[in-house]
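Sorry to interrupt, but I need a hand with the structure work. Could you add the entry underneath, on a fresh line?
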Amino acid sequence: MSILSKSCKNICTYLGKNNNALYGALTIAVSKGILRPTFTMMDDKQDKKSRVYTAFREGTTGAVAFGAYILTNHFVEKMAKPICEKAKIPGKINQVKSTLSLISVSLTALFIIPAVCNAITKPLLDFFTGKQQSRNTNTDITPSIIQKHTIPPVQYNNYHQTFTHSLSPFNYGMKVGL
């Protein structure tokens, strides 16, 4: 056998014995974190600001996903032993770890990654692009501004009812089915 085929066999054997949802999730996170921003920035049909924001958000999501998957998997693996002891199945710790890993990857993708990305994307983008957040500290609205922008009341004198409602249902007296 050649060195390449032995290496492939060893890798496949290792991954088959250590089946963990974390490996697939990390591969997807790295791929998305690198490839999606690259392809987004190559799209010349969109304006530059939109491309920068989209690429930054996708890269940030990939980085956050990678870290979040590792952290949640680390804590979940520590929970496997107490769960096995409480359920009195000490011989199935690897299966419990695998199941908990799948659950943690799913819940991380569903809740943790979107929450963290929504919280950090805008401040990080402003920091890296050099934009300063302009905060308007004058929140006092004077009554003169309110009076200038009042909405006139709706006039109902030309209102015509276009349809009527009958109290009896449309299929009154009709038999449905046999």
